[in-house]
Structures are given as C-alpha cells and as structure tokens.
Write a structure and sequence with these properties.
With about 140 residues, the chain is of the alpha+beta class. The protein has a single domain, classed as Nuclear Transport Factor 2, Chain: A (Roll). Helices cover about 30% and strands about 40% of the residues. The protein has a six-stranded mixed sheet, with helices on both faces. Strand 3 and strand 4 form a beta hairpin. The longest helix has 16 residues. The two termini are about 25 Å apart.
C-alpha cells in the first residue's frame, strides 16, 4: 500500500503543477486537513484547509492571491509506512511584482483509504525530517 501512497503524492503534485484541480482533489480524502507553512494571506493565526472545499479554497488562495504561479518540484519522497515524507522546492512568482522566489519545503502526509488525509507543510527539509523523526 505504501508504494501506492507515493504514487498518489506524485499524482497530486503533477495535478497541482498542470492546473488540474479535479485530479488534485481525486488524490485527497474528502475530509483532508492541510496545514500550510506559507500563509496565502496574513490574517493572523494558523490557516487549516479542511475537506475538498478547503482544498478548493487553498487552490484559489495560492493561485489567485499574492502568487501568480506556485509550482512544486519534488526532490525526494520517502515512504514511511503510515506516512510519506516529501522533500523538494517550490517556485513562486509574485502577482503584482513578478519577482520570483525559490524555497525549500517539506511535507509530511498521512493516508486514509489510499488518499491523502493530512498534510503538514514545513519551510525546510530539516524541519520536515525532524517532524518525521528522521535526520539528514
């Protein structure tokens, strides 16, 4: 089952990068919880996107808010049995200025019935590895 989880993560990233919302949602459990590390709007407090409606809101926030474009580049995926650790980078282009950013990111995801159930984003590989109980 865990190799299937790795493939689900790959499909979700590909869907995100190719602007395929339906394929992105298909990889997510209907009750998914996504804890982003990059807040799309600085409202104070932690944003948590819940369910497919929340995933649609995240899609809109990251694609229509401050960012003209946000793409994911997976560097490494580690199958941890019950979870999957993703280490990679995101490329961001600011909507109003066109300034490009390149950031290291990590994600730790859990699964339910073959779909992504929870996602926790991290702003560095080190943070993600520590959260997964691993070291570099």
């Amino acid at each position: 089952m865990s190799q299937e989880n790795v493939e689900t993560v790959r499909r979700a990233a590909e869907a995100w990068n190719t602007d395929d919302l339906d394929a992105f949602l298909a990889a997510l459990d209907p009750e998914v919880e996504w804890h982003p590390s990059i807040e799309p709007a600085l409202e104070g407090g932690e944003t948590i996107y819940r369910g497919h409606d929340g995933a649609r809101k995240a899609w809109d926030d990251y694609r229509g808010g401050a960012w003209e474009r946000l793409t994911v580049r997976i560097q490494e995926i580690r199958d941890l049995g019950e979870s999957v650790l993703v280490l990679g980078h995101i490329d961001l282009t600011a909507q109003t200025t066109g300034i490009r950013f390149h950031e290291e990111v990590g994600q730790l995801g859990t699964f339910r019935h073959g779909k992504i159930a929870t996602v926790q984003d991290y702003l560095s590989h080190r943070e993600a590895l520590e959260a997964a109980g691993l070291s570099e």
